[in-house]
Design goal:
mainly alpha
């Protein structure tokens, strides 16, 4: 049935915008294919359409509207347990972190922690950032034990910066003082 065509439509949609220098680059077709997947409630399509809109917003007629639609698509994907979308939502919200309210910062951390705690392509990076923010207390109250947990997870997931951060945590001790 129709489900058999989903991977092909997703691949085609991504193909049309993958390389801007390619003779096959076609924003309209990518928009059409990925938008159709999203409209039909396909979580992978929602995620891909959100990424497409964000990455190509500068090429759209209304870049601000494209970024808004991107965030809407990413939120749909996140509701459908596409956890990489949570990480991308966190990144898009982070641009305004200095002026963000406590509620927005809590929402940002909720998205970051969903990405860090669930298997997805951005899990290692999300765990690293969660470790950093729990260590420095910028988005949440400082909690070095939670920071250590996320640093260890980032390292275990193979994130190179996670290895460094986790090693530094161990060397300096969770209190931040040298422990050697």
């Amino acid at each position: 049935g129709a489900n058999a065509f989903r991977p092909a439509v997703l691949t085609l949609g991504q193909f049309f915008y993958g390389e801007k220098e390619s003779k096959y680059f076609n924003l309209r077709k990518a928009y059409e294919y990925l938008g159709a997947l999203s409209d039909n409630g396909v979580p992978e399509g929602q995620l891909a359409f959100g990424i497409f809109l964000y990455d190509n917003s500068d090429l759209m007629k209304d870049p601000v509207k494209a970024k808004g639609l991107s965030l809407k698509q990413l939120k749909l994907a996140a509701k459908n347990n596409m956890y990489a979308a949570d990480y991308l939502i966190f990144l898009s919200m982070y641009q305004n972190v200095d002026s963000a309210s406590a509620k927005i910062k809590a929402d940002m951390m909720a998205h970051l922690e969903r990405a860090a705690n669930n298997e997805n392509s951005a899990q290692g990076e999300a765990a690293l950032y969660a470790a950093i923010y729990y260590k420095n207390g910028k988005l949440v109250d400082r909690d070095v034990s939670i920071s250590m947990k996320y640093a260890q997870k980032a390292a275990r997931l193979g994130n190179p910066d996670g290895h460094y951060f986790y090693g530094k945590h161990i060397l300096m001790g969770v209190s931040g003082s040298p422990d050697y």
